[in-house]
Amino acid sequence: MKNILLTGCGGQIGSELTLELRKRYGGSNVIGSDKRIITTGPLAETGPMETMDVTNAAEIDALVKKYHIDTIYHLAAVLSAVGEKNPGLAWNIGVNGLYNVLEVARENGCAVFFPSSIGAFGPTTPLDFTPQDTIQRPVSMYGVTKVTGELLCDYYHTRYGLDTRGVRFPGIISNDTLPGGGTTDYAVEIYYEAIKKKKFTCPLPAGTFLDMMYMPDAIDAAINLMEADPKKLKHRNSFNVTAMSFDPEIIAAEIRKHIPDFQMSYNPDPVKVCIANSWPNKMDDSCARAEWGWNPKYNLSSMTVDMLKVIGEKHAKGIL
Predict the structure, then answer these.
(1) How far is CA 14 from CA 47, 75, 160, in A?
(2) Residue 73's closest CA among 16, 18, 139?
(3) Contact predicate 259/194, CB 8 Å
(4) Does pTM surpass 0.85?
(5) How far from 250 is each of 6, 99, 217, CA to CA, in Å?
(6) How far is 133 from 236, CA to CA, in rounded Å?
(7) Within a 10 A sphere around the Cβ of 147, how many other Cβ atoms?
């Protein structure tokens, strides 16, 4: 039985990944940790929760030893738009925090999952069918931390034989957890505003294509990669994974199939536009498909049906 530690489990991906891992491996075997104190809600009710700062290696080591951890899902990070407001914080958590996790994992024999991002690419990267192995010159501090993290994970695997694995996530869309300052957040917010107000002001202009993925597929990608046979992995870290690619006009049109009077206007955010324009329109995820069977279950149509259903039910109950 695995003993799993998640860092940053109070975030958008971590909060849902923690619960799914507890379903699969048992609540007591999956330890959630976050810098924030979490004492109520599903995370606190379904398994152990600890307060831990990834910039403090001693705190990580103490939890690994306390719970006999063998696998770490390292999710603590500062997202792209927030990172531009505080680059130093983004670097400290994104790079120094990962270094601490890798060192603790090396000393204690843990496997490590590290999520990279489409943010690891830049304007000189091929934007269409972006290859698995290609030039990476990001223009955001978030992207810089992700490229650095990819290289660190590769180094620890090559140098020390550490079992490091990771994916490059696209924008993640969730019907449960609100986003926390990412460039792709609009693709979550648009559904909430469509239900609540039937209108939305988009911070990215029409024609801005970005890779996206529904949260259930993102969770499957993380878990399935960590469960994959290592002998089949030609790559180790930063597998391109995607499920769909669209621009604001396309997602708005999909919503109008269900809410015909939905209206969208534009008020571009210069920081988000700059970042989004440097990211791929569509990644090539053939390596993930070939090496560990990546195959998303949701497309834009099926995701939209589920998003509007779940958010609509929440709105009807007055819990949005």
Answers:
(1) 14, 6, 27
(2) 18
(3) yes
(4) yes
(5) 35, 40, 20
(6) 12
(7) 19
* DSSP element (H, E) containing 118: none
CA distance 74 to 94: 10
pLDDT, one tens digit per residue, over 255-292 is 999 999 999 999 999 989 988 998 899 999 999 999 99
Among 208, 192, 197, 313, residue whose Cα is nearest residue 262: 197
142 is catalytic: yes
Q: At what angle do helices 248-256 and 300-316 cross, to 10 degrees?
A: 60
pLDDT in tens, 89-140: 999 999 999 999 999 999 999 999 999 999 999 999 999 999 999 999 999 9
Which position among 67, 73, 142, 156 bears the catalytic label? 142
Closest CA to 237 of 156, 171, 170: 156
Residue 63 pLDDT exceeds 90: yes
Task: Round to whole Å and give the CA distance between 141 and 271.
Answer: 12
Domains of the chain are 4-170+213-240 (3.40.50.720), 171-212+243-282+298-316 (3.90.25)
CA dist., res. 103 & res. 137, Å (int): 26
